[in-house]
Amino acid sequence: MRGGFHNSIISTPSCLVYFSRTPSSFSGRILPTPDLQLPISSSHHIISRKTDIPVSDVDEFFESFIYLLNNDKEYDYNNKDNEILESILKVENKTIEKSVAPSCSDFLKRCIWKGNEDRCKQLFTQTKTANGYCCSFNYIQYKLYAKELQEPKRVSGVGYQSGLEVLLDNNPDDYFVTDISSVGYRILIHLSEDFPDVASSNILCSIETNTLIGITPLIVSASSGLRRMPLYQRNCLFPDERRMTFFPFYNFHNCLVDHNAKITYEKCGCIPFYIPNRETKKKWRVCTPKDALCVTQYEDLYETNKENVSSYDCPEDCETVRYSTACYQGSFDVHFTNRFGM
Predict the structure, then answer these.
(1) In a shared domain, residues 174 and 247
(2) Residue 203 burial (CB < 10 Å; 0-12/13-18/19+)?
(3) Is residue 203 within 8 Å of 190, Cβ to Cβ?
(4) Assuming Cys at both sites, which of 8, 100, 144, 232 could form a disulfide with 277, CB separation 3.0 to 4.6 Å?
(5) Whole-number CA gyration radius for the chain
(6) Rounded to the nearest 5 degrees, what angle is found at the Cα of 338, between the Cα atoms of 335 and 341?
(7) Are residues 247 and 302 in the same domain?
């Protein structure tokens, strides 16, 4: 088992997810306004010409677009809305996730690693996750045919001075619909080799605060003799004992992601956009807006199966690290603002 873990934020990668300072939910009922006449935008006519979609259908689509953004299961829209959206995105050569995601440089303003200021783009990379695009630190994205594990960055001591410090700009003017009623950032905490998704430990950091996150690791290690035992007796796997469809090395967490992707393909004929290493011998079609109804239908199935993972054929890890976290928040102080030159 690789050692060197300490009670510090940098024992594991962090993934930042931006959410709005002024979030709004559209799950409530929207009242009709029959006396309000909305003008038809000229851009609707342009979209209609480029996509060969009747302008009346384009107008109807934009009226229901807010429900599509919020993935509102209570709204009874048909799949035509998703097909129109896909046609528009094809013309513009864009994806929803990439178009609405802020870049890491938009909100990562200052980064300090082990007491030394460094360029944020050298420390963070934009990654695809089940939550959309994230900015990840110390996350190792393996190629499918990688032959050995890489070494993540490690701290040299305890305390925030030997860890990672980041100054974040929430950009309150950049308003958009969010799926949680909160303000600030969501930080996902997971192993460097784990794919970041909804099962990862996460912490919400409010705006205008100084947030300290402490991490305590629990290391599970195994003796070399365990490998000689058959799988049915030890009921666990080492990373090099199974190659999965989308991940080169085995671990329990990635096995769940791998299995859910294959369920989506079996039921809907596509895999989620965030699944890594899609460049396999098999041609995997990535889900698009027209698949939204099917994918949404099976979202609850994934949550149910996580409670009964025996059907997944995903044995536990023989060696792993689990984390417990503690979060402390306070107002900006003079020392902190001076440290970042504010």
Answers:
(1) no
(2) middle
(3) no
(4) 144
(5) 23
(6) 155
(7) yes
pTM of the model: 0.69
The gap from C-alpha 218 to its chain's centroid, in whole angstroms, comes to 24
Domain annotation covers residue 220: no
The DSSP H or E segment spanning 213 is: strand 209-220
Structural domain that includes position 112: 1-214
Closest CA to 290 of 67, 64, 68, 32: 68
pLDDT of residue 11: 33
Establish if 96 belongs to a structural domain: yes
How far apart CA 268 and CA 260 sit, in angstroms, is: 12
- DSSP summary character for residue 187: E
Both 17 and 80 in a single domain? yes
pLDDT at 276 over 50: yes
Q: Are both 110 and 57 inside the same structural domain?
A: yes
Within a 10 A sphere around the Cβ of 189, how many other Cβ atoms? 21
Whether residues 161 and 291 fall in one domain: no
Query: What is the rounded average pLDDT of the residues 146-160?
Result: 80
Q: Exposure pattern of 55-81 as b/e (b: 16+ CB <10 Å)? A: eeebbebbebeebbebebeeeebeeeb
pLDDT digits (tens, 9 = 90+) for 210-233: 888 888 888 899 988 999 999 989
- Domains in the chain, number: 2
